[in-house]
Amino acid sequence: MKAKIDINLQHDQLSQSPVGSCRTYKICQGILNKYAIDKDHLKKSEIILMAYIQNNPDVQLAEAFDIAESIACMKMDKLNSLH
């Protein structure tokens, strides 16, 4: 991910986005759960993934999977630097 992402999104904001974005997020959430180190890591990963999908509503599912896996494998210091 090349650009910094605004992570000031809440879970309910995703519900205001197109149905496809919601489905994409829900499908990719399993990847985040698989790789999460702890609750803080999971929460930060979820917020960054939501922000990415919110900002790229036309993202293809395969690309979203790759992004989710990349986010999930990041260490906390890297996740913190994205906001």
Helix content: 55-70%
Could you name the ranges where pLDDT drops below 50 across 5 or more consecutive residues?
1-7
Measured between the Cα atoms of the first and last residue, the distance is 12 Å
Could you tell me the number of beta strands? 0
**Largest sheet geometry:** none
Label the structural class.
Answer: mainly alpha
Q: Specify Rg, calculated over alpha carbons.
A: 11 Å
Approximate strand percentage: under 5%
Oligomer: single chain
pLDDT averaged over residues: 79
H/E element order:
HHHHH
Gross morphology: globular
Please give the count of helices. Answer: 5
Descriptive notes:
This protein has 83 residues and is an all-alpha fold. It has a domain at 29-81. 67% of the residues lie in helices and 0% in strands. It is built from 5 helices and no strands. It has helices at residues 11-14, 19-35, 39-55, 61-72, 76-81. Helix 2 (19-35) runs antiparallel to helix 3, helix 2 (19-35) runs parallel beside helix 4 and helix 3 packs antiparallel against helix 4. Residues 1-7 have low confidence and may be disordered.
Describe the structure concisely.
By secondary structure, the protein is mainly α.
Write the layout of secondary structure elements.
Blueprint lengths: L10 H4 L4 H17 L3 H17 L5 H12 L3 H6 L2
